[in-house]
Amino acid sequence: MTRPSRTRQRTSPRLAAVALASVAAITFAAMPATSASAAPAQTQRGVKQVATALVNKMWTLAENNDGAGLQTFINREFQAQDADQPRWNKRQFIDVLVNKEDLSDYTLSDLRATRSGNTIVVTYSAAATQVVNGKQLSGDPKPRMTVFVKSPRTKDYTVISHSSFNVPSTS
Q1: How large is the angle between the packed helices 13-36 and 39-63, nearest 10 degrees?
Q2: How many other CB atoms are found less than 10 A from the CB of residue 158?
Q3: pTM value surpassing 0.90
């Protein structure tokens, strides 16, 4: 009985590297889908907890007219936009919160938060007893959006943007 002859084919190093890279890419591409399926709920809960604490901190500082706390907590590049007001920078916003606003009895609800890198975007409703520049605002829940950014140096979050869709009450 004769054995079939074996011919050994030489594979070029370049072809071997391409094949190895392809197998690795397919393997790694499948991995995030598997590990990510269990992680989003836990990650989303963590983001919501952080966001809730940050939003509550901002509202507590405003309610207490804490100018020093707001100065530290609000980012130097901050911008605010309200439904019936011009845009405010950090200095103007703090001035309004400390000197021209009376805020009490607030309730925050329907909080939703997303994170992208060092940024957390939070949308929520806020109902409050609130007078700004002598105008009574509606006490009904109104939409708000607050954006926080985490400093890579200090690892602390600051408020970089805030929007309020509340307007003076008509009653």
Answers
A1: 60
A2: 20
A3: no
What are the E-state strand segments in the chain? Answer: 74-82, 88-89, 101-116, 119-132, 135-136, 142-150, 157-164
Give the closest residue to 103 by CA, choosing from 72, 135, 71, 125: 135
Contact 63, 103 (CB under 8 A): yes
CATH of 41-164, one of 3.10.450.50, 3.40.50.920, 3.50.30.10, 3.40.50.2300: 3.10.450.50
Question: pLDDT tens across 54-101, in order?
Answer: 999 999 999 999 999 999 999 999 999 988 767 889 999 899 889 877
- In one letter, which amino acid is 44? Q
Residue ranges per domain, the chain?
41-164
